[in-house]
Every structure is written in C-alpha cells, then in structure tokens.
Amino acid sequence: MVLNYIWIGFFLIAFIVGLVRLLFFGEVDVLPQMMDSTFSSAKNAFEISIGLTGMLALWLGVMKVGERGGVVNLLARVLSPIFCRLFPDIPKGHPATGSIFMNIAANMLGLDNAATPLGLKAMEQMQELNPKKDTATNPMIMFLVLNTSGLTIIPVSILAIRAAQGAAQPTDVFIPILLATFVATLAGIIITSLYQRINLLNRTMLLTLGGCIAFLGGVIWAFHSMDSQTIDTVSKLTSSLLLMGIIVGFILAAMRKRENVYDAFVEGAKDGFHTAVRIIPYLVAFLVAIGLFRASGAMDMLMDGIKYVASATGASTEWVDALPTALMKPLSGSGARGMMVEAMQQFGPDSFVGRLSCLFQGSTDTTFYILAVYFGSVSIRHTRHAVTCGLLADLAGVIAAIFICYLFFA
Predict the structure, then answer these.
(1) By three-state DSSP, how is residue 257 classified?
(2) Quick check: helix, strand or coil at residue 92?
C-alpha cells in the first residue's frame, strides 16, 4: 500500500509541477520533455531487466549447484546462531540463511552483479515460508533493509570516478564512506528490530556487532596506507578470487556428492530467466515515475526549497549543493552517479561538495529499485514497514555522511 501511494505521488506531483511551469512560466517544452522521459525510462527498465537475465541465469545456476552440493545448507547451519536472532521467523538451518549471507557478502565487496541474483534467490526461499504470499514477512523486510542500507567495504567505482575526475588523492573518501555506510546499516538493523520487536541486547548479537566493528577497523587500518592504484588492484583481485572460489567450490562439492552438475546448473539458470521476466513490470512502473518526477523539475524545486530553509535558519548551506546525489540515490543508482560526477565537475573533486557527493553515493543504496526488483520477483504487493525502515536507514546514512564530511574535510 505504501508503494502505491508513493508511486501515485510521483505522478501527481510531476503533473502539477509541469502544469504550473507551462501555465504560469510559459515553458512549452516541459510537457514534451516529460513524455519523452516516460518512454526513455520504460525502455531503460526493459534494458535493465534484459541485462539482468544473463547474470540471473548464471548465479541462480551456480546457487542450484551449491544447494545440490550441500554448501548452502552448511552455511545456513554455521550462521544459525546469528541469523536466528536477526531473522527469528526463518527456521534454523534453512537454505535462505546461506543465500542471505552470500548476498550480503557480495554487497559488502561491491559485487552488484552477483549480489542481485543471490538476493532474488533468498527472496524466493523466504517466500516459501510466507503464509500470505502477497504480503512481506519480517525476514523479507529485514533483508531488504540490509540491502538498502548499502554496506560496502571497498567503493571501487567511486574511487575510480574520483581518479578520472583528477582528484589529488582519490582514496581520501574511503574511510569516511566506510564509516557512513556502517552507520546506515546499523541504524537500519536497529530501526527494523524496533518495528519487529527483535531483542538485539544479547550476547550473540553484541559479539557479532563488535566483531563487525573490529573487522571494519582492520580494513581501515589495512587500506589507510595504500594508494588508489593499490586499493584498486587489491579489491579487484579479492573480488575475482572470491567469485571464482565460490563457483569452483560449489562444483567440487556437488561432484563430491555425485550430483549431475550440468543439469543442476541448467535447472537454476531457467529460474533466472523466469525471474528476469517477472520483474519487468515493477521496474517499468517505478523508473517511469522517477523519470517523470525528475523531468518535471520537481527535484530542482525540492532542492531550492531545502537551500532556502537552511539559509533562513542561519545554518551552513554548503552541504545542500551535494544533496541532489543523496535525494537521487534511493530512486536511481545511475541518476545518483550522474549527480555525483556533475558535482565534482562543477565544484571540483577535492571540494567539500565533491567529496560529500561521493559520501552520499557510497553510504546508501537504491531503495526503491531494490524494493521494486526484490518484492516484484515474488509478487509482494503489501510491503508493510519496509519502505519506512529503508528510508530511515537512508536518512541515517545521509546525516552521518554530512557530519563525517565536516569532520574530515571542513
């Protein structure tokens, strides 16, 4: 129901703003631009779905091999002490636990192409436990929030773009991004746990969160002294080794159990194709609404309003110039990336605005895209508190990014 109101809101606001610009300011091109945006957004949504088809087929095929080999079930058993507290409605040892872990691990390493198919597999497995097939369950919502909070250890693409824009030290945003995205993820877990009445004050969860903090500290220490080229090399090597290790490990495990690896892969790949087809309508719906909202000028009006309020209260308005990246990120990853590049080109990659836009890009994820794709893949219509928790986690990441950027670069 929440997604319904948001979707309608995008259309109505865009139409009203476009009409005002036409009638009161004589901007005759605004409505044709809005219509062009709907067509291009629909085409973009279809192209994204087609582009996902190959990756979905590959990774769902690999996951099927892992299931047959028992690797996914082994991961589920190992992670049960942690996940049974964070996802109490998932039975101990259920395969969904292994898929969730692999999705989160892929996201942390910035492996979007691998993370999305693994996440869709986890949603399908959680849907099997869902008594109300059109309504999101608590585990689904917690999983979605963990995805939308965007925890990433190595923001390779952001560092590469900064280097391409001529930043003096492209990696100087690495630690701030890591801190901001960790705040967003932690806030998402706490907020969702409050909604779902999950007790996080237990020995297992406190040790897990403490271990995560220690691990992040180790990563910060390890990468702090590296230059951008070394970080890029290490991250690419780590990602490649991880992915190849997963594929080969799954194949060897299935061979050990004398499973037909090829047939298992083909069976999983077929599921990937069907999943890609199912998400097309959901992607078209949201990307068209978002494109219309941008083309109407509503986004620019929102930015001008925020800057006016900030200046009226006497607060610094320097951060407002980077805000388009933060506002666009929940709506469109490519749109936010474009806003980030635009900010660096206009203000300079080493300016406060240029750096803050990078922190915004790295501290959260594309909330509405993830909701549309993941919930659409299992035909969920009633999202309950998923949107609220996801957006609050995004807000926590944005606020943290602003404070951290002032702390490091003011």
Answers:
(1) coil
(2) coil
Spatial neighbors of 373 by CB under 8 A, at least 6 apart, are: 116, 120, 279, 282, 283
pLDDT in tens, 357-371: 999 988 888 888 888
> What is the tens place of the pLDDT at every residue in 232-274?
677 667 666 776 887 898 899 999 988 899 998 998 888 777 7
Nearest by Cα to 15 from 38, 27, 31: 31
**Integer-rounded Cα radius of gyration of the chain:** 22
CA distance 124 to 120: 6
Enter the pTM of the model: 0.75
Give the C-alpha separation, 136 to 130, whole Å. Answer: 8
The type of residue at 39 is: F
Q: Collect all residues with Cβ–Cβ distance below 8 Å to 257 and sequence separation of at least 6.
A: 68, 69, 70
More confident residue, 75 or 263: 263
Six-digit token string for 82:
């942690």
Give the SS3 label for residue 384: coil
- pLDDT band, residue 79 (cuts 50/70/90): low
Q: Residue 296 carries which DSSP code?
A: T
Q: What angle do CA 332, 153, 386 make, to 5 degrees?
A: 45
* C-alpha–C-alpha distance, residues 294 and 314, integer Å: 29
Q: Please state the three-class secondary structure of 307-362 as a single string.
A: HHHHHHCCCCCHHHHHHHHHHHCCCCHHHHHHHHHHHHHHHCCCCHHHHHHHHHHH
Contact, 304 vs 20, CB < 8 A? no
- Local structure of residue 137 (DSSP, 8 states): -
Handedness of CA 93, 99, 100, 106 (dihedral sign): positive
Closest CA to 147 of 394, 321, 401: 394
| Residue 183: pLDDT band with limits 50, 70, 90 | confident
Count the helix, strand and coil residues of the chain and give each as a percent rounded to the nearest 5: 80, 0, 20
Closest CA relative to residue 396, chosen from 348, 363, 347: 363
Strand partners, 135: 382
β partners of residue 382: 135
Q: Can you read off the two tokens belonging to residue 181?
A: 């995205």
Q: Please tell me whether residue 91 adopts helix, strand or coil conformation.
A: coil
Residues 6+ apart with CB under 8 A from 180: 359, 362, 363, 397, 400, 401, 404
Taking the CA atoms of 14, 15, 18 and 24 in sequence, report the sign of the dihedral they define. Answer: negative
Structure tokens at 29: 């091109």
**Cα separation of 139 and 264, whole Å?**
27
